[in-house]
Amino acid sequence: MIKRSNSPWLALAVIASIATVGFIDRIVVNVLVEPVKAEFGLSDAQVSLMAWAFALLNIVAGLVVARIAERVRRLTLISFGTVAWSLATAACGWAGSWVQLLVARMGVGLGEAIGLPGNQSVVADYFPANKRGLAISCLLLSPPLGAFIGFVGGGWIAQEFGWRMTFLIAAIPGLVMGFVAWFFVGEPRRGQHDPGASEDVPPISAVLARLFKLPSARNLVIGSALAAMLGFGLNFFFASLMVREFDLGLAEAGLYAGLIASLPAALSVVGTGWLGDRFGERSPKAYALIPAVSMLVGGPLYALAITRADLALLLGLVCVATFLNFGFLGITYATLQNLMHPRMRATAAAILNGVYGVAGGLGPSLLGWLSDSLSDSQGAARGLALAMAAGGLGYLWASAHYFIAARRLPADMAAVRSAVGMPDHGETAGV
To answer: Does pLDDT of 62 surpass 60?
Structure first.
């Protein structure tokens, strides 16, 4: 009989590490855009298909697995999925053609669809509602930390040993962490911090009702999806811009891209989560107002920054803009989890991951298409910079949805709390 720990902080550390590994395996392709383009003779629009290949199976399979996760031991799915996507990452390094690489990326997406939908549900069951903002924000440190490791480590390995070795080495941590989760992390009791919650598993229609019929939740989903789409697109091509505009090597470009995408975003994710918990109990509007104001300022700043000809000025301004634009991650997930019934949370996370999966494919594709179009008249470097500037301005649209969500959040939160013990088997129970 395996003796596993029920420590909330151990569970958070292990699950956050797994999520970080998943983001490394997802984002490491960003620093490999130029060598992959060169080897297979691709355009910006074509190479962006790697993002779609990841999302293709990830979206559908993630929702199916999430419904299973509402009923079975979630740590088993997390462990198995982590090992599976790590093996698929290794397969990327063995790809002998462009099609084989796309198929391997589909395998990574499928593995993450198995391993990641239950992670927020587990963390939400380990921590009470008034501590979930910080806890899930710590979990959502995985994108910036994964971006740093993927960009910096991936760039150096690719420059020294080639892009194929980068995939092979990136697969190792996930294989280790999958076994760590299996042997050391206990499964928490569902809803242990949500007194009165029903043990019934609500149908998916009830989950969709809460996500898209509650005005605050609907606008949080739309706003965060737009922000995610822009973030994925901008990060996908940032290292490429460093190579084209400033003639940097892959290692140096990866270092700058990793630092920009990690440290400011990490500080922002944790900071907004802490601020949300501090002010949200007094006024739930804070959970949406904080990212709304941040992106209102950060979006235009990014557009200004990315077109600067001086590298130091560009990096400095982008650093500040990234701090402002990525704070939505943890606080949005935490707020949406608080709006869910305990046995809705894995499904809700999977639906959101599906939405963000589409965003993760759409962002690089739109930016790649715009870059190719502008490059005909502006050149490859300037065309990409202008396309990224347009992406920065897109954060204003995302900000508008967060302002709308802030206005409706207090009433929606009160309605959900008054229905906490209901089985949510219909649309009226969903709100």
So the answer is: yes
